[in-house]
Amino acid sequence: MREYREDQPVDFAIVGTGAGGGTLACKLAEYGFSVVAFDAGPYWRPLEDFASDEMHQSKLYWTDERIVDGENPLQLGSNNSGKSVGGSTVHFAMVSLRFRPEWFKSLSILGYGADWPIDWREMWDYYAEVEQTLKVSGPINYPWGPKRPRYPYRAHELNAAALVLAEGAEALGIGWTATPLATLSAPRGLAHPCVYRGMCVIGCSTNAKQSVLVTWLPRALEAGAEIRDLAMVGSIEHDSRGLVTGVHYLREGRWRFQKARNVVVAGYSIETPRLLLNSASGKFPQGLANSSGLVGKNLMVQANQAVWGISDREIRSYKGPPSLAITEHWNYSDEGKDFHGGYSYMSQGPLPMLWGATQSSKRGLWGQALLDEMEKYNHQVGLKIVGETLPQERNCVTLTDERDQYGLRIPRVTHSYSDNDKRLIAHSLRFMRQALQATGARDIWDETDDTCHLNGTARMGFDRKSSVVNADCRSWDIPNLWICDGSVFPTVGGVNPSLTIQAIACRTADRIRAMARRGELITT
Amino acid sequence: MRAARITRRQQDSLTSLHEAASNLRQKYAVPDVLRTHVRPVTTSSREAQWRNAAGRQLNLGAALLSLSVLADSGIEHYRGSFQNRAMYVPLGVSALALAASLFGVLDTRARSHVLRDGLYGVAAMTGVIGLGFHGYNILKRPGRFSWLNLFYAAPLGAPVALLLAGALGRGAEKVREDRSSRILGHPAGQTLGLLTSAGLAGTAAEAGLLHFRGAFQNPGMFLPVTLPPVAAGLLAASVINPGNALRRAAKACLNLTALLGFAGVAFHAYGVSRSMGGWRNWSQNLLGGPPLPAPPSFTGLALGGLAALSLVDKEQRSPST
To answer: pTM for this structure?
Structure first.
């Protein structure tokens, strides 16, 4: 790996190496820029470092202290965070979905949320680039949306849990398909194909999972980027002109400074606003890039409610990737809805500890009752949504006065569902219950309060008053400060965001190259 | 020491096989059967010779196909935990068809045999019934006749291999019996040529489907979808419109296809090594990786095609038939 000096400015210092930062680091390095990408987590070697053990693998999560509040406080730390080089893609469920084209113009076409400053047709090409890079295994014909190119690899075989989703969907007369997944269904280079161990969400030790760690980052290193792991960036420095000059970061016990001509913040929806707010100065008392006051605002979760039941058949839902089948019916159909937005739902394969925790925390089972319920593990089957929630300014990330192990102010994450969100959730629970009933499942119960992916808090938009960055992820206020991760989403849609984040990073890299060629980047 | 003992044992068993074969020969010997090594060469003995050679080659083709089916259905139905008892049937039937074929290969008489004929018939019928079972397996799943089910449900092409083994075997018996034999109203060579041509095309289609499932991730995966179809086309063409150049080209391609069947096993063995754990984890990767026993069916069909070619050649040279 190439290494850069701290006192010589690099072209780009990127904070975060996940779906946004890792992808961007690769693309920018390949375009000839000098790049140092920082991550607070370690650089894992999956074959040696990952155990088939849920408890041990919690090392992949960002479990630093946070304060949560609001009417529906979020549970943070596992499925919505990652503290590893590669970010949360190291333990993501690999679901790689495209946005519904209309969502890029939610407000003007569908009448809710906000419009994106990017056209869906442009995104369609970047989606294809990411799908190729991840060798996404997907169905030959995708039932919804405009034509898309063939997925590079074929869909995986369905497990019994996925077949239950298919049966339910066919019984209710809606479409379903094998889920496009970023895990290999055939060998690729040195990587083995998926062996269906089912440990996907605690880190894939087969290396079949096509995370940022094993796809973009090796290419980034090849192209001369440096990945600086175990490096917590605490603040961004700027000069008297209001241009950023580098980042302060803690590594090996002491604070250091890396000079940079451009800084890209890619820390996801909590760490990104936290870093911008923590970098407040005399010149920018509200925090960097925050003249709109929108940094930290419009935090959007995705609803993750589920319906579970017991099947007479043996399901063993933990075999294979957890979400092998999906229906996007309620993302693409606008009939029969009493809410704005959409949701998809997928088959599920919770690992045993998660399942035990779900039974005790969500249903209050304990002692013999919990033991009895766990006996049914091989027969349990469920459907779970990824549901769109609407942007609200009251849902936000702010700073508390408490400080963490780095001496940095701890973020406060405030979240409440809107009435629309609640209607969407109720609709999904009703519908999934019918679908599960149609397959003959019994003892059906609703898991009503889970959430997954976070988005928003530094939205992109058309002008500096109503957004933090423009379509190129460049901040309105500071022309050499960029934000490139899920926090730029103006709306979230009802699909997992990782593919869209990577597509945006690819687009941002192309835009940066074009601007550099025209001499529109800042040269310090 | 140990190796030598095994070799001796193998020799013993070979000798006893030869003895058994010659006993059978004597037992079923008929006076008008001509043998080159006891009688002077005559036109009719030459005829009997090539009839027999063609028949035995067809038996060999059927043997390879049966072996492929035996090993493949053994592995795949084991993988399917023999959930339906009928899943044992192709193992038994293909084993019997293999035995019948080996008997045919060793049998130098230019005559059919009622046992072989019957077993080949059973094999062909089992293939047809298997096709029905596999079709049912596909259609009962959500998605019905979809790509996903064609990829991962019971494979449609596999039982057809048993049907082809039976058909080639029946053809072998016909050819041995009578040089002017006709199958389905056409000279045997023509019918068998077109049958193996169709079989090759079908097998290439199955390889194509499954290699498409594997996203043609290795360039070698294109071989079985290019060479065998060319061989099949040339074979069909030279059956319909015989000519020296066409025949030579068809022969060359069929020979290559026969080799490809063996090369395919090596490729698939490499494929097994590409799964997590490689050959150290053979007990899982043999089931999950590319099927080792599948490619030799190309060899079996190619041998059948070569036999059919020589029959067509003879048929052309003796238009009286």
So the answer is: 0.91
Query: Under an 8 A CB cutoff, do A186 and B217 touch?
Result: yes
Q: Which two tokens stand for residue A61?
A: 């999560």
pLDDT at residue A356 tops 50: yes
3-class secondary-structure state, position B20: helix
Nearest to B215 among A139, A153, A192 (CB): A153
Compute the radius of gyration of chain B from its Cα atoms.
21
Q: Which helix (H) or strand (E) holds B155?
A: none
Q: Which chain A residues are within 8 Å of B212, Cβ to Cβ? A: 154
Q: Residues A91-101: pLDDT tens digits?
A: 999 999 999 99
Query: What confidence score (pLDDT) does residue B318 get?
Result: 66
Pairing status of strand A325-327 against strand A306-310: unpaired
pLDDT at B41: 46
Preferred mutation among A50, A158, A179 to probe B, highest tally of B CBs within 10 A: A158
pLDDT of residue B319: 53
B141: which chain A residues are within 8 Å (Cβ-Cβ)? 163
Number of domains in chain A: 1
- Alpha helices for A260-364 (secondary structure H): 268-278, 329-332, 352-363
> For the residues A474-486, what does the mean pLDDT come to?
98
Classify residue A499: in a domain, yes or no.
yes
A137 located within any domain: yes
Quick: pLDDT tens for A231-251: 999 999 999 999 999 999 999
By three-state DSSP, how is residue B24 classified? helix
Shortest CB distance from A187 goes to which of B142, B217, B284? B217
**What residues form DSSP beta bridges with A246?**
A237, A259
Kindly give, in sequence order, each residue whose CB lies less than 8 Å from that of residue A28, ignoring residues fewer than 6 positions away: A11, A12, A14, A35, A225, A509, A512
What gap in Å lies between CA A279 and CA A287, rounded to an integer? Answer: 6
- The answer as to whether A104 is a domain residue is yes
Label the pairing between strands A10-15 and A35-38.
Answer: parallel
pLDDT digit string, tens, across residues A455-477: 999 999 999 999 999 999 999 99
Residue A392 belongs to domain spanning = 10-517
The total of other beta-carbon atoms located within 10 Å of residue B40's CB is 7
Q: B287 CB near a chain A CB, below 8 Å? A: no
Whether residue B118 lies within 8 A of chain A, CB to CB, comes out as: no
Q: At what angle do helices B157-177 and B89-106 cross, to 10 degrees?
A: 30
User: With an 8 Å Cβ cutoff, are B215 and A170 in contact?
Assistant: no
Packing angle, helices B114-139 and B157-177, rounded to 10: 160
The C-alpha angle with vertex A381 and arms to A208 and A56, in degrees rounded to 5, equals: 45
Candidate from A152, A167, A208 with C-beta closest to B142: A167
Q: Do A154 and B212 touch (CB under 8 A)?
A: yes
pLDDT digits (tens, 9 = 90+) for B58-80: 999 999 999 999 999 999 999 99
CATH number for position A403: 3.50.50.60
Q: B264 to chain A, minimum CA–CA distance in Å?
A: 17
Asked whether residue A4 is assigned to any structural domain, the reply reads no
* Of residues A139, A152, A167, nearest to B215 (C-beta): A152
Angle between helical axes of B296-317 and B244-273 (0-180°, round to 10): 170
Q: A interface toward B at CB cutoff 8 Å? A: 135, 139-141, 152-155, 157-158, 163, 166-167, 169-170, 176, 178, 185-188, 192-193, 195, 206, 208
- A469 secondary structure, DSSP code: B
Number of neighbours of residue A318 by Cβ within 10 angstroms:
23
Chain A: give the shortest CA distance to residue B209, in Å: 11
Q: What residues in A contact B288, CB-CB < 8 Å?
A: 195
Cα A118 from Cα A103, distance rounded (Å): 11
What backbone torsions phi and psi does residue A522 show, to the nearest 5 degrees? -80, 130
Amino acid at B154: A
